[in-house]
Write a structure and sequence with these properties.
- By secondary structure, this protein is α+β, with helices and mostly antiparallel strands.
- The longest helix is centred in the C-terminal third of the chain and has 19 residues.
- The chain is built from 12 helices and 12 strands.
Length: about 300
C-alpha cells in the first residue's frame, strides 16, 4: 500500500535504544499483548525480532525508510542490528489489537550451524531479513497458529516450536518483501550471480558518480541488451530503478542522520537535479525529503 507520512509537527520524537527483556539464559523472549492503541515510539535494539500484529488495519508500519499502511494481519521479521522500527496508530480504529513479539539473539543459531544443509534456508532467511521482511497473507496464515500458541508452550517444546516457525518462513523467503532499502540500512545486497555481485558492488561504491548501462554491461562481460534483461531477471528491478533505489536510500539515511540541506543531500546522493530528486523521492517514499526528515529525524537516546 502507498507510503504516507503525517504532516510536519514541531514536536521532536525520540528513537529509543530499547533494552529488551531477553537474557543470556533465554533462547528467545515472547510476549503477547491485547491493546487499544499503538503507543510505543520508534525504537531500535540489537536483538532479532519476529512481530505479528492482528486487527490493526489502517495502522502504519515503519521499518527503516519503509513506511506502509498495513491490513488486519501483519508479520515482519527483522534481523538487522539496530534497524529502527515501530507500528503507529494512523488510521486504525480497532480497539482490540493483538501483538505477539518474539525477540532472539543474533547468535541463537551460530553461522556454522546455519551453513549446514538442514538449516541453510533459515540462514538465508536471516540474511534477507536484515532489511526487514514482510510476509504475504497466505504465509502468515500458515504460521499463525504456531505463533499464537508459542507463549503457552514451555521449555524445549517451545524452542522446537520456534524453529518450526522459522523453518516454515524460510520456505517462503522469496515471496516476502524486503522493507528498508539496503543503502539506508548500510547492508550490501549479495546476489547468487557473480556477475551481478560485481555490478552491485560497483554501484554501491560509485552511486554518487555517473553510471551507465554500457559501463555496467562491460563489467559483467555482456552486451548492454543482454545485461539489461539479465539484471532485471536476477534482481527483479530494471538497472535504472536499482540505481535510483540505492541513491534514494542513501539520501533517506542522510536526512535522518545529518543536518545537511536537502540540496546538499541531493547532490551527495548522486542526483544532479534538485527538482528531479524531489520528484523521485516523493514517488518512492510518498512524501517530500523535507517531510520525511521532519517526521523521521529523531534524537537517539539510550534507556
Amino acid at each position: 500500500m502507498k507510503s504516507t507520512w503525517p504532516s510536519h509537527t514541531d514536536s521532536e520524537e525520540l528513537i529509543i535504544k530499547e533494552i529488551t527483556p531477553l537474557t543470556d539464559k533465554d533462547c528467545f523472549y515472547v510476549v503477547q499483548r491485547i491493546k487499544e492503541t499503538f503507543t510505543y515510539p520508534i525504537h531500535e535494539h540489537s536483538e532479532c525480532e519476529l512481530n505479528l500484529v492482528e486487527n490493526a488495519a489502517g495502522a502504519r508500519r515503519v521499518v527503516g525508510d519503509s513506511v506502509q499502511v498495513i491490513d488486519d494481519l501483519d508479520l515482519v521479521l527483522i534481523t538487522g542490528s539496530n534497524l529502527e522500527h515501530t507500528w503507529e496508530q494512523h488510521l486504525c480504529t480497532c480497539h482490540s489489537i493483538r501483538e505477539t513479539t518474539i525477540q532472539f539473539s543474533p547468535d541463537l543459531l551460530p553461522d556454522g550451524l546455519l551453513r549446514k544443509n538442514q538449516l541453510n534456508a533459515i540462514g538465508q532467511l536471516f540474511e534477507k531479513a536484515r532489511n526487514g521482511l514482510s510476509f504475504p497473507i497466505h504465509v502468515v496464515r500458515k504460521v499463525y497458529p504456531r505463533i499464537i500458541a508459542l507463549p503457552m508452550i514451555k521449555g524445549f517444546d517451545a524452542f522446537v516450536q520456534f524453529l518450526t516457525i522459522l523453518d516454515e518462513l524460510s520456505k517462503h523467503a522469496d515471496e516476502a518483501v524486503q522493507l528498508s532499502s539496503s543503502a539506508f540500512v548500510k547492508v550490501e545486497q549479495v546476489s547468487e550471480s557473480r556477475r551481478i555481485q560485481k555490478v552491485q558492488h560497483y554501484i554501491n561504491t560509485h552511486f554518487r558518480e555517473l553510471i551507465t548501462l554500457p559501463q555496467m554491461a562491460d563489467i559483467a562481460g555482456m552486451t548492454p541488451t543482454s545485461f539489461s534483461r539479465f539484471f532485471r531477471l536476477r534482481t527483479g528491478r530494471s538497472f535504472s530503478d536499482y540505481i535510483i533505489d540505492v541513491r534514494i536510500g542513501s539520501a533517506a539515511r542522510l536526512l535522518v542522520d545529518t543536518s545537511m540541506t536537502v540540496s546538499e543531500i541531493c547532490f551527495d546522493s548522486g542526483f544532479n537535479n534538485l527538482s528531479n530528486f524531489n520528484r523521485l523521492f516523493r514517488k518512492k517514499k510518498g512524501c517530500s525529503p523535507s517531510e520525511f526528515r521532519a517526521n523521521y529525524k529523531k534524537k537517539k537516546i539510550i534507556y
